[in-house]
């Protein structure tokens, strides 16, 4: 599947781009465009449908358990299913299958550790000049060499993704057991393992000690992250188990609660585990919200500005 997504193009060579400064710049730019800004430190703890409430604002949202409820016409839920499970949805009228999905849909684990060195030794010492990955049976499993900095000064500091344990759940949890929430504090065991494994991966028996000492001397700092331990995700991404995609996915993408509640995010997409899945499912959530309130003019505006997405069928059979 990865090969189909990234190595194959039916038309022409894809042009890849990187965002200098990180992908958070994209979300910050989107926030700047919003007329109504998001509120922070307001963890949603209850979502309900109040059919008896007058007017269209029948969706009830409570934050931090006991704050005053807020009322909306619709709610688009962007949390992972693990986080949605912690929200009280007793009065949301979710279908039985959606309730099952929030409890049982399998999420895989993933752990990353990035290390900052005083120079890109993998380029200057190992001749890895084109970016890419190395796979190994060592605990780090996958080492990722960046391509965005290939033209940078080779004598200046650079960051290496020392390990990206993804889709190997047991490997991720084992490395993740060494990651703290306030990384890199208290992670001497993690640091030692990463540096030692990197030396083993990039050396032979004859020059291991030399490579190990050089890598240790080049180390500046590191940062580790374990998605399974993050309370805003409770898992890295949806990895449907046997039969789950067929039995759960069709229900996850259906509007709930009088078509006022929509689940979006990579788990509610045929492109689960990828950012594109989150984007396409968000398109679906907005589209179905507009459909519910017959805002066909805004749907047409969406199509003109953003086009169609493959997983949203908008025709008479959609």
Q: Tally of extended strands?
A: 12
| Number of helices, where a helix is a run of at least 4 consecutive DSSP H or I residues | 11
Please give the radius of gyration in angstroms: 23 Å
Average pLDDT, to the nearest integer?
A: 92
Can you describe this structure?
The protein is of the alpha+beta class and 318 residues long. It contains 11 helices and 12 strands. The strands form 5 sheets. It has a 3-stranded antiparallel β-sheet with strand order 1-2-3, with no helix packed on it. A hairpin with a 6-residue loop joins β2 and β3.
Key features of this structure:
alpha+beta, 3-stranded antiparallel sheet, 11 helices, 18% strand
Secondary-structure map:
Layout: H1 2-6, H2 24-33, E1 44-49, E2 59-63, E3 70-72, E4 75-77, H3 81-85, H4 96-104, E5 107-108, E6 110-117, H5 121-124, E7 132-135, E8 142-145, E9 158-166, H6 169-176, H7 188-201, H8 208-218, E10 219-226, E11 237-238, H9 244-252, E12 261-263, H10 275-292, H11 296-306
Parallel strand pairs: 4-12
Antiparallel strand pairs: 1-2, 2-3, 5-11, 6-9, 6-10, 7-8
Helix pairs in contact: 4-9, 7-8
């Amino acid at each position: 599947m990865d090969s189909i997504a990234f190595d194959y193009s039916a038309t022409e060579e894809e042009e890849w781009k990187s965002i200098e400064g990180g992908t958070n710049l994209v979300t910050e730019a989107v926030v700047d465009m919003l007329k109504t800004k998001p509120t922070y430190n307001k963890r949603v703890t209850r979502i309900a449908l109040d059919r008896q409430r007058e007017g269209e604002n029948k969706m009830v949202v409570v934050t931090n358990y006991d704050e005053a409820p807020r009322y909306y016409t619709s709610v688009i839920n962007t949390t992972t299913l693990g986080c949605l499970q912690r929200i009280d949805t007793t009065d949301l009228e979710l279908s039985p299958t959606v309730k099952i999905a929030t409890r049982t849909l399998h999420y895989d684990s993933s752990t990353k550790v990035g290390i900052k060195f005083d120079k890109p030794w993998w380029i200057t010492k190992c001749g890895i000049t084109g970016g890419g990955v190395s796979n190994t049976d060592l605990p780090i499993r996958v080492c990722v060499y960046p391509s965005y900095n290939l033209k940078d000064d080779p004598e200046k500091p650079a960051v290496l993704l020392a390990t990206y344990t993804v889709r190997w759940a047991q490997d991720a949890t084992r490395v993740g057991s060494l990651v703290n929430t306030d990384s890199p504090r208290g992670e001497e065991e993690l640091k030692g393992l990463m540096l030692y494994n990197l030396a083993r991966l990039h050396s032979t028996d004859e020059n291991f000690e030399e490579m190990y000492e050089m890598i240790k001397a080049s180390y500046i700092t590191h940062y580790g992250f374990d998605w399974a331990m993050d309370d805003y995700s409770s898992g890295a991404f949806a990895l449907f188990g046997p039969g789950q995609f067929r039995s759960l996915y069709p229900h996850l993408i259906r509007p709930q609660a009088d078509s006022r509640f929509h689940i979006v995010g990579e788990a509610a997409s045929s492109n689960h585990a990828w950012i594109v899945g989150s984007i396409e499912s968000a398109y679906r959530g907005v589209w179905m919200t507009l459909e519910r309130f017959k805002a066909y003019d805004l749907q047409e505006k969406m199509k003109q500005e953003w086009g169609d997405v493959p997983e949203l069928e908008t025709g008479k059979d959609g």
